[in-house]
Specification:
Blueprint (H helix, E strand, L loop, with lengths): L4 E8 L13 E6 L5 E2 L2 E5 L7 E4 L3 E2 L4 E5 L10 E10 L10 E8 L7 E3 L8 E3 L14 E4 L2 E4 L2 E2 L11 E2 L1
């Protein structure tokens, strides 16, 4: 077709498991048509189409031109859970709407407020993780923390000297 913008991918947000309320949004799009086109509108939704951010790319695209475009506004991905992201390119007279939209799911870990305490049983002393100077590493599958000049992680120990009752304790 003469006029055909194609949304290729959502480049960002991606690649981590802890997102913020101010995540940069970047998409890749191309002019798949055979004539030059100008000033397409691009839209992004972080929540399956419930809210949208939009921009206009103020430039001319020759046939085959491909760019990475960063939106001027950020997306809020701070809530824990799955975010069904949608990116759309919209250009007046586009003759192939089947390639205008792409999707990407990203997952945000729900933040754990510190200090964090868990007894791991209905009676007995409380096991506490209370490092007040703690930096959680994004995307870790275990707690990694920095406290008092040392690095460590939360692990489980089956030695009887560590647990009150039962057979294991978090150390």
């Amino acid at each position: 077709p003469d006029n055909d913008f194609e949304m290729l991918s959502i480049e960002a947000p991606a690649g981590k498991n802890v997102f913020t309320a101010n995540e940069q949004v970047m998409v890749k799009l191309t002019n798949s048509g055979i004539t030059a086109q100008s000033n397409p509108e691009v839209l992004f939704s972080p929540d399956n189409g419930n809210t949208w951010i939009s921009d206009t790319i103020n430039q001319t695209f020759n046939p085959g031109d491909t760019i990475d475009f960063t939106f001027s506004n950020d997306a809020d991905l701070s809530a824990g859970g799955i975010h069904n992201c949608i990116a759309v390119v919209n250009n007046s007279g586009d003759q192939n709407s089947l390639n205008d939209t792409v999707y990407r799911g990203v997952f945000t870990l729900a933040p754990i407020p510190l200090p964090f305490s868990e007894g791991f049983e209905s009676v007995g002393p409380l096991t506490a993780f209370d490092a007040t100077n703690t930096d959680i590493v994004n995307g870790a599958e275990y707690w990694r923390f920095y406290y008092g000049g040392t690095n460590g992680r939360c692990r489980f120990n089956a030695d009887p000297s560590f647990y009150h009752t039962g057979s294991a304790a978090a150390t």
